Every structure is written in structure tokens, then in C-alpha cells.
Amino acid sequence: MIRHYEAIGLIPKATRRDSGYRDYDEREVHMLRFIGRARDLGFPISEIGQLVALWQDGDRASGEVKALALARAAEMERKEHELRAMRKSLEDLARRCAGGDRPDCPILDDLAIGVEHVSLRCVKEKG
């Protein structure tokens, strides 16, 4: 990931030792930890760039940081609801499936319905 962070300009390219290994000073290590913590909290790279800029700006308005955090939390809540709905659907499909040796399977039937809807939508868009 560090190579990627350098490539997109999130962090400056590190100095290299004669061995080719990157050499970081304490400030750079602190920056990498900051980025890692932001990733752990679910921030995407684009927002981490904003957070880094705000962190480095002594004149920043903390309201901007709070707005980013609240927006990320709201997005996580939305995804959480989606994941719960998907889990409930899968559990319901699994309950309806006998799971025996017979070929009929409500899980596959449900997946096939989704394929038919996508296929029909594609046909309508092309037509």
C-alpha cells in the first residue's frame, strides 16, 4: 500500500537506503500510522487525502473534519442496513431450501430470477 500512497501523492516518496529499503523518519511514520488508522475507520483514500490536508493545516476548521466523519458514519450505517437485508434474504432462502438430494432449490431459483431481470433490462436498454 505504501507504494500506492506514494504513486497517488498521498505521501511523498521515501528516501532509500543503499540496500533499496525505504527509510522513514519519525514524522513519516506518524503519517503512515495516521493513514492506517483512517483506513481502519473506513475512510476511502480520497477522504484520507482530505483528512491529511486538514490534519496538516493548523488553521483548519474542525467542523470540516466532523462533517467528513459524520458522512462516513452515515455511509457505514447505509451499508450496514444493506448487509443486514442481504443476510436476512440469504437466511430466508436457506430456510426454504430442503438441502437434500433433490435438484429443486429455491436459492438457485431466486438467483435465476435476478438474472432474468438483468437480462430483460439489458434488452430494453438496447432496444
From TrEMBL:
Keywords assigned: DNA-binding, Transcription, Transcription regulation
SMART domains for the chain: HTH_MERR
Pfam families according to UniProt: MerR (PF00376), MerR-DNA-bind (PF09278)
Residues forming coiled coils: none
Domain HTH merR-type: 1-54
GO molecular function, one term: DNA binding
InterPro entries: DNA-bd_dom_put_sf (IPR009061), MerR-type_HTH_dom (IPR000551), MerR_fam (IPR047057), Tscrpt_reg_MerR_DNA-bd (IPR015358)
Name listed for the protein in its UniProt record: Cu(I)-responsive transcriptional regulator
